[in-house]
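User: Hand in any protein.

Assistant:
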Amino acid sequence: MSTENEGAAVPPEAGSRPAPPAPHPDPAPAVPPAPDFKPAVGTAPAAPQAPIGPPGEPAAGSGLPEPAAPTPAQAGPSPATAPAPGADPARPGAWWSEADGRPQDASQAASHADAHEGAPGAPGAPGGPWGAGAPLPPSDPPARKRTGGLVAALLAAVLVAGGIGGGIGYWAADREAGGDSTTISALGNPKSESRAPGSVSDIAGKALPSVVTIEAEGSNGEGGTGTGFVYDKQGHILTNNHVVASAADNGKLTATFSNGKRYTAEVVGRAQGYDVAVIKLKNASDAKLTPLPLGDSDKVSVGDATVAIGAPFGLSGTVTTGIVSAKNRPVASSDGGGGNASYMSALQTDASINPGNSGGPLLNADGGVIGINSAIQSAGNGGGLGGETQQSGSIGLGFAIPINQAKNVAQQLIKTGEPVYPVIEATVNMKDTGNGATIAANGAGGTPAVVPGGPADKAGLKSGDVIVKLNDTVIDSGPTLISEIWTHKPGDKVTITYKRDGKQSTTQVTLGQRKGDS
């Protein structure tokens, strides 16, 4: 509703006061009464012939009794509808249309779409739809600006909106002195406020108290920020190795919960090759430890919803969402500190993860952990999430260690303090890509590439053989082979497909083991 040009009504010239209209027999609340007659289309009612006397006196010679004073509910248009000075009150300003039963000004018979306030045929003007062209007499003093009609009109608008749109919203106009202002208030959405089980807000609300921000500082004062989450009620926190590596030797570690409580921590064990580490809180008897439920990463499907929680660039408690974009994505990553690379057959997600998200949980739609966020592919070809020289942001290519693998590693670290890796005891080229993993001519320091008596030797593999498949997974490079082997456990039997002299063959290998990262 426009509020322009509204103010006190201007009284008509002396001696030109018209008679007040007769009260309507059954007026609707807050709505001006319609005339009790409906002239034929195109015919304006005739102007009164007898002179019009002052209010409260019958017109001379009319023979009509004095009309009763209208009640407030029966009052006609507000003083804002009084004609401007010089206007002819006897001018027939409107008649009724057969089309919609609404009054139209004679000059607006063809179209009333362009009417505006103050113009003939518009609300608040002579001949407008709120009366039949007979304005009310003004009060003796100039009328002050009235808000009752506005409130009533707003109330009617709210009732109509509620009936049609279910109460989506309403308009409230502040008409106080100092200027006009119009605001919109939302009534709220019960569905969004219900926080239904399985919604992102529900998942985040349950998981956030179990996620910690880890600050690591080495003895040289260097370090960084990452994320971890409560693994068990004994105070173990699961995270990435590259998050805590700088503080592993005489450094400082702290873990801060979402409620602001901070605890010092120590490294229980770390696996550089898996990029998994376990730390434990110190003096945390008052900590409320609620382990996050672990999902089954083997049952994940491409397209499943994901929720990532972490501290990107130090912003603790950040929640982002996405989907599982791919499975079994071979990824080799590094912390940028010159250490050995880590290999994983990763879950790929487009949930936004950035430096500082490292070690944080990747959750499914049930709130279960399906992975540990560990690496991103950035526009600058950055690797791991924590510590690279150039910390590039997310471009929708994030990678997480499958939780089934991380769980096995965590149990090893808690039990013995060191990781155990499944191996075939054969050295493969790490730079060749696209055609498979080629067994090198020699191992480290000139040793045989295929360890005599090891699993690969027992399976008949030799230098020069090109491994192209492990079980049903296609192998296109050395890192892919290692990533896939490390999803298994020592003692597992796998089928390897390889090429030798252009001929393709298969063999079965029982995986051996290697302890520690040396």
User: Anything to note?
Assistant: The first strand starts at residue 95 and ends at 96. The helical segments are 148-165, 190-193, 200-207, 241-244, 403-416, 455-458, 478-485.
